[in-house]
Amino acid sequence: MTSGMTGAVEEPSGAAVLRRMLGDDIVLIEREKMLPYCRDWHGDAVSSAVAVIRPRSTDQVAAAVKACRALGFSIVPQGGNTGLVLGAIPDAPERQVVLSLERMNRIRKIDADDFSAVVEAGCILSELKDAVSEKGMFFPLALGAQGSCRIGGNVSTNAGGVNVLRYGMTRELVLGLEVVLPDGSILEGLSTLRKDNRGIDLKQLFIGAEGTLGIITAVSIKLTPYPDQAATALLGLASLEDAIKLYRRARRDCCDLMSAFEFMPPLAFTLAQEAISDLPIPISTEYPAYVLMEISGSGLVDVDDLMQRFLEGVLEEGLVLDGTIAASQTQARNLWLIREGINEGQAKRGAHMRTDISVPLSQLASFVDEAERAVSEALPGAVSVSYGHVGDGNVHLNVLPPSGSTPEERIQLIYKAKSVVNEVLDRYAGSISAEHGIGRLKRPDFDARLPETSRKLLTALKHAVDPELIMNPGCQLRF
Amino acid sequence: MTSGMTGAVEEPSGAAVLRRMLGDDIVLIEREKMLPYCRDWHGDAVSSAVAVIRPRSTDQVAAAVKACRALGFSIVPQGGNTGLVLGAIPDAPERQVVLSLERMNRIRKIDADDFSAVVEAGCILSELKDAVSEKGMFFPLALGAQGSCRIGGNVSTNAGGVNVLRYGMTRELVLGLEVVLPDGSILEGLSTLRKDNRGIDLKQLFIGAEGTLGIITAVSIKLTPYPDQAATALLGLASLEDAIKLYRRARRDCCDLMSAFEFMPPLAFTLAQEAISDLPIPISTEYPAYVLMEISGSGLVDVDDLMQRFLEGVLEEGLVLDGTIAASQTQARNLWLIREGINEGQAKRGAHMRTDISVPLSQLASFVDEAERAVSEALPGAVSVSYGHVGDGNVHLNVLPPSGSTPEERIQLIYKAKSVVNEVLDRYAGSISAEHGIGRLKRPDFDARLPETSRKLLTALKHAVDPELIMNPGCQLRF
Questions:
Q1: How many CB pairs under 8 A join A and B?
Q2: Residue A154 to residue A134: CA distance in whole angstroms
Q3: CA diameter of chain A
Q4: Which of B65, B197, B205 best probes binding to A when mutated, by most A CB atoms within 10 angstroms?
Q5: What is the distance, to the nearest Å, from the Cα of residue B293 to the centroid of all Cα atoms in its chain?
Q6: Which stretches make up the FAD-binding PCMH-type domain (chains A, B) (predicted)?
Q7: Which terminus of chain B has fewer CB atoms gathered within 10 Å of its CB, N or C?
């Protein structure tokens, strides 16, 4: 198509061809416009892409996949771009296209009588939660990013959050999926059946696959009655070990009505107040360990009474040293702001090491103890902050460099801290990713620990479902 | 190896070679000894096999798989042989080997502090439940066959049962799996981590695959605190529709403490008493619909009080017409015997049509109404019995031929009843298998309804994981 004549017509770029095939409205190719889709929200990674495709329908997604295949581009699916492991950020700008689901944000159906809803992948989680709550229903997935993350991303990454101990990971909230496969065909599985045991459950493949096997375009989800009662308490304890004892006790005493059990160190208050300056702290900040606990329910269950009786018992025994129960929704919200402020407070202190670790619950306290000790021996002056969803055996053991560290010192410290923590973690046979996924950030650590049998099976699966390897290459594994 | 000489040595059969390779103790080849492994417990199907292999360890399973491959035999894995869809019964006796997991029945570990256990596939479900309850823990899977079914079979078939509405299908109770793959390699995944989000979750492939992708040899499972309180009630209602209204109400009022909600028609009492002659029926048998409901919990929750208050409200409103609450464990057990007696009572009336249907909960009443009407129009004299796990949208709509029907008449009626019911089911976009799986029995019905995209994907998966197609051929699909 090139021409040597005067007024030569330049061969159109792949991006331009893609745009012509799919339409100007669908395809962005300007670098500045693509930028928000090509950097992660921490700002740690900035990249670019051939194009950003923003389809409005499942058929447009299928057309986009076929066009990309024809042109030899690979596809990085993206939801709200709030992931923490670079799973939705391109890393080969010259041959990758970002496919954003943000325009597929309709709620197709909410059926309160059926305890289910059908929503498109681009639905923002908090909007979905609000819409179902208007019908008296509840979608339990709850995480810090819920104002911007999108349900398709939550499903693709099998997101966790603060309510996992009662309701499970996202996987357990999914009834059905609609998926555009790497050949552009559409797997139609948006059933709302609660029980459907027709053999191998294909949707499980795509949950947690981070877009490496196909593009989730819509999801049918389980709903539960809205828990219109909640009792929230902040408790001071002598140690993480006591917090785990308390969790076991609460699992038995409060049964399946406990919806959150978060662990925090005293430093949490400092960090939260660095992020939110006028945040009230309604408890002495001098205990070695804190738990933020929530019991919730609906109907004839009295969760306030349950919390009261539970705390009376454990205070009397001395397992809990001090505690405050939120007397209003505002007070409860403020307690949660302490928990949520930890992240922002750490971010304000500059680049630091973040982890997302799980070990068996019975070994969590000794793991944290050992890992924090190893960090302080190897990196004097660095500060460990361990907090998280203790009931699930999931801890975010983060390491903050000494204040005044240079950017280079921080990078070195982060690198070193990770290897120190991972060395302890491997001895505990823990997971390097309890809830955040693998993406591109954790691929080397994942790869290094992958047993040969798992690798062979993953490779066989990848080649079976995506033989041209066009779906999110570089994410999870390199094949 | 054959010889024409006097005293000719006959070429040893494949079965004999297998026996020599794996050992006399491991391999049965006598027809009578193999019989119990080659017929289903209903006695509907009787077959045979080349051999029955009964390994005692994972390594022996792996060796058996390699030997079968080398000899060109395919493998039908079997647990307790209590399945209802012929998934574990050979159908090609000349080339299939049954691999029974019955000897791998050790409990490897129960860790109450970790809310987990690790058990071998051949553990009998009730023995496992008893063992964990001795440590104050509870494994929620509960089904009629629990005295003989084995956990590996439960996982392979993703078994359901009466507690699904609170605890989920077996899939949701599994933390990890050890699987012998079709090439004889061992996928080691017996982690007890509650949260582990390292990408694609390989274990999901094998749950519900009914042994078509590999052999589950051990399982790590979630435990919960033992619910030492239970309130059980039998309620009389005006209709199935009211039962579903009651379910919705109970979900809200009793929150996550409701553990069972079973629907039965008045005929249930007759059938149960035909099976268990002196079974007490503590309620008038003249209501059109009955619900057996259980609330359970541990610790500080008062489930008796909750049941009392719930029933007071719904009786006052007229949603429930009559009810009895079990005053003792014996009374509760007797109420459950009514529910469990339905199956045996039907069996005593001779061959009949059984289904395992799910439809969206909001359409269950109209589905049952329509399907029962269609049956009575098409098959005058036949009796429909619809009962089951209504809270999950799961109904067993069975059809009993008129008494005095000949075996041939029964076969014809079963065939006709199935097509009448399935015709209605397809209009409701329901599932032909809510909890029993596909096996060989439902393969034709599954196959006929399988969308092309799903078929392509299942075929690609099968060839990727089991390229020689040796695992349970004929089960779920023919490839």
A1: 283
A2: 22
A3: 92
A4: B197
A5: 21
A6: 45-226
A7: N
Residues B238, B342 share a domain:
yes
User: Which residue range forms the structural domain that includes residue B18?
Assistant: 14-100
What is d(CA A248, CA A370) in angstroms, rounded to the nearest whole number?
Answer: 22
Q: Are residues A332 and A375 in the same domain?
A: no
In a domain, B432, yes or no: no
A201/B429 Cβ within 8 A: no
> From B248, which residue of chain A is nearest by alpha-carbon distance?
A113
Partner residue facing A188 (CB), from B181, B195, B451? B451
Phi-psi region of B303 (alpha: psi -120 to 50; beta: other; left: phi over 0): alpha
Considering A225, A252, A275, which residue would you say is the last residue of a domain?
A225
Place of tokens 């002495």: A284
DSSP string, B318-356: TSS-EEEE-SSHHHHHHHHHHHHHHHHHHHHT-S-B---
A115 domain residue, yes or no:
yes
Do B221 and B234 belong to one domain? no
In what helix (H) or strand (E) does residue B417 lie, and over which residues does it extend? Answer: helix B407-427
The gap between the terminal CA atoms of chain A, to the nearest Å, is 34
**Alpha-carbon span A345 to A337, nearest angstrom:** 11
How far apart CA B432 and CA B422 sit, in angstroms, is 8
B137 in Cβ contact with B129 (< 8 Å): no
Q: How far is A25 from chain B (nearest CA, A)?
A: 29
Query: What's the per-residue H, E or C state across B8-67?
Result: CCCCCCHHHHHHHHHCCCCEECCHHHHHHHHECCCCCCECCCCEEECCCCHHHHHHHHHH
A236 & A303 share domain: yes
Question: Are A221 and A139 within 8 A, CB to CB?
Answer: yes
CB nearest to B434's CB, from A197, A205, A460: A197
Per-residue model confidence as pLDDT tens for chain B (479 residues): 444 445 556 778 999 999 999 999 999 999 999 999 999 987 779 999 999 999 999 999 999 999 999 999 999 999 999 999 999 999 999 999 999 999 999 999 999 999 999 999 999 999 999 999 999 999 999 999 999 999 999 999 999 999 999 999 999 999 999 999 999 999 999 999 999 999 999 999 999 999 999 999 999 999 999 999 999 999 999 999 999 999 999 999 999 999 999 999 999 999 999 999 999 999 999 999 999 999 999 999 999 999 999 999 999 999 999 999 999 999 999 999 999 999 999 999 999 999 999 999 999 999 999 999 999 999 999 999 999 998 899 999 999 999 999 999 999 999 999 999 999 999 999 999 999 999 999 999 999 999 999 999 999 999 999 999 999 999 999 99
ipTM of the complex, rounded to two decimals: 0.96
CB contact under 8 A, B198 and A432: yes
Which site among A300, A308, A466 would you substitute to test the B interface, given the most B Cβ atoms closer than 10 Å to its Cβ?
A300
SS3 (DSSP) at A176: strand
Structural domain count, chain A: 5
A397 is a domain residue: yes
| Contact in structure between B301 and A254 (CB atoms under 8 Å) | yes
CA distance A442 to A446: 6
Q: Which of B360, B456, B465 sits opposite A193 (nearest CB)?
A: B360
Best A157, A194, A317 residue to mutate vs chain B (most B CBs within 10 Å): A194
The four Cα atoms B236, B237, B239, B241 give a dihedral, to 10 degrees, of -120
- Write the DSSP symbol of residue A416: H
Inter-chain touch A195–B248, beta carbons under 8 Å: no
CATH number at residue A284: 3.30.70.2190
